[in-house]
Each structure stands twice: as C-alpha cells, then as structure tokens.
Write a structure and sequence with these properties.
The complex is a heterodimer of chains A (about 120) and B (about 180). With about 120 residues, chain A is an alpha/beta fold. Helices cover about 35% and strands about 20% of the residues of chain A. Chain A contains 5 helices and 6 strands. Chain A is globular, with a radius of gyration of 12 Å. Chain B is α+β, with helices and mostly antiparallel strands and about 180 residues long. Chain B contains 7 helices and 6 strands. In chain B, strands 1-5-6-4-3-2 form a 6-stranded antiparallel sheet. In chain B, a hairpin with a 4-residue loop joins strand 5 and strand 6. Classes of the chains: A alpha/beta (about 120), B alpha+beta (about 180). Chains A and B meet through helix 2 and helix 3 of A and helix 3, helix 4 and helix 7 of B.
Chain lengths: ~120, ~180
C-alpha cells in the first residue's frame, strides 16, 4: 500500500507540503505509549498515535518509521513539524479515532508490524 | 548476621547474559571499560528535549560503520530506553559508549536515588513514573524489559538511596535471535 492511499482512506491532512507520498508502507503499529512503539525493531512501519510531543519524532531516530498519523484530530506544534521536516518524515493528521483508523487500514490490507 | 543481611540487600545486582556468551561477557565487564571509539553524553534530570540525543548519535556512528540495520535498531532502542530511564527516574547521569570491532558496550551511571527492587522493575508493566513523565507517553513499564529484549548482555547494579549503574553489550554479528 502507498502512503497516498493511506491519506485517502483516513481523509488525512498532510502537514509537510513536499512530503513524498509515493512510498510503500509495508505494515503499521498503533499506540500512545513510547515503550510500546519501541517494540517495532524488525521492519519499517507506519505509526498511528495520539502523542504529539518531540519524543515521538525522536523515535524515528531509533526505529524505522515510514510516516506518522496523528489520530483523533491531534495536531503537533510547528517546532515538532520542523523536526520531522529535518528528518524527511511525513506527518499526517486525521480526525478519525485510533481504533477506526486502524480498522480501515487493516480492512484495506495493511498488516500489523512484526514485533 | 542481621546487619550483614541488611547491608547486602541495600546493594542490588541483576545480570542477564546470553548463555553462549557468558564467559566472554563476564571477562570483558570485569576489566575497566575501553573501546576503539568512545562517546560520552550527559543526561540531565527530566530534560526530555535532550534525552535521546546520545542514542541517536551512537546509532548514526554505527550506521556509518556499516552495522546491520536490525542490530542498529536494537542498539538504538536499548540505549534510548536507558537514557529515558535516567532522565525520568534519576537526578541525572552520564552515558558512555565504547565501540569495539564486533560489539558495543554502553554504560549509564546516574546520581541516584537507586532502584528499590530491580526484579520488580523488570516485570513488564511495572512503573514508578510520575504524572509528568506519563503525559509524555512514557511510563509503560517496558523500559527495562525492552532493554533486556534487545541486548546480548545486561548488568544493573543499584544501591538503595545511592546511584544506579546499567550497562549492556550488543554484538554486531552472531545474532542468534
């Protein structure tokens, strides 16, 4: 599945204007807890989260995150968006809940990441 | 005798070494730490803007050295969890990374107040994180278990009321997991 398909499915808003949405997304993980997210060490993954602080961007320095979807209408501050821009990390906002977003993507064929 | 038992219980120690590496790791950790390359970074108390920078720096260096991506992620996650632990639970500390040809040895030393019960802290889900730390998304109680899962050897020494030393080793090859 391509990132642009995910934006469409989640009726998402892309926060970084020149983000490359033609990247393949192999799998996804959803959590609001940093240590949970750090269990994804096996493969590149899409992250769905309600966390919008700088540590969630820093996670992308540790593990391989393809893009971050902020759920439930949450929006990160400009400085967080800048941090992501420096890392070429696409950020997308959706008004949908984490449960609904995950369900829609799973139904569309996006599998869960290996942990 | 009672006094002796009490004194012993104040200094707690925890080891977890991959069985096939036991002898090699113990021999290495018994000697003063050294490496071909050494990196050091400060971890200030409750500073979540800085926490994680040391781990990212080590990961980037290992990446340039051509270490396998999955091993890179294991090093980064273990180091990051340990950095966050120092920032969240201690009065601050220091991270020292010793890079060798075939493995990395990272050591974290903090200024206290120590881990009351290491065995309990190792249980997934157990956490003493405060509200401020939890609001940032930490405090899942998976820090130490995540470190153990990603390392080939883990050693923790903590003094109740005193400082904590946590060190681990990750090999770049021979990844039997």
């Amino acid at each position: 599945m391509y990132l642009k398909d995910i934006v469409t499915i989640l009726e998402g808003e892309v926060l970084i204007p020149d983000a490359n949405l033609d990247v393949t997304v192999p799998c996804a993980f959803a959590s609001d807890l940093i240590s949970d997210i750090l269990m994804c060490t096996k493969e590149p993954t899409l992250l769905l989260t309600g966390l919008t602080n700088n540590q969630v961007i820093r996670l992308a320095d540790m593990i391989d995150i393809v893009a971050i979807i902020f759920v439930r209408g949450k929006r990160p501050l400009d400085e967080i968006v800048e941090m992501a821009q420096e890392r070429n990390l696409p950020l997308i906002c959706t008004k949908l809940t984490m449960y609904r977003s995950s369900g829609l993507l799973y139904n569309a064929g996006l599998r869960s990441c290996k942990i | 005798m009672q006094d002796f038992a009490a004194a012993r219980s104040e200094m707690a120690e925890y080891w977890n070494i991959r069985p096939d590496l036991e002898e090699e790791v113990r021999r290495h950790l018994a000697a003063p730490p050294e490496g071909d390359v050494m990196l050091e970074s400060l971890i200030p108390e409750k500073d979540f803007n800085t926490a994680g920078k040391g781990s990212a720096e080590v990961k980037n260096l290992l990446k340039r050295l051509g270490v396998d991506p999955e091993i890179l992620r294991r090093v980064a996650v273990a180091a990051y969890e340990a950095e966050i632990n120092v920032a969240a639970h201690s009065r601050g500390g220091i991270m020292s990374s010793y890079i060798h040809d075939d493995f990395i040895h990272i050591m974290f030393q903090d200024k206290g107040p120590g881990i009351a019960d290491i065995e309990q802290a190792m249980i997934p889900g157990f956490s003493t994180a405060d509200e401020m730390v939890r609001e940032l998304g930490f405090g899942a109680g998976l820090g130490l278990p995540n470190i153990q899962k990603n390392t080939d050897a883990l050693h923790i020494r903590s003094e109740a009321g005193g400082s904590t030393m946590l060190e681990f080793i990750i090999y770049f090859t021979n990844n039997g997991r």
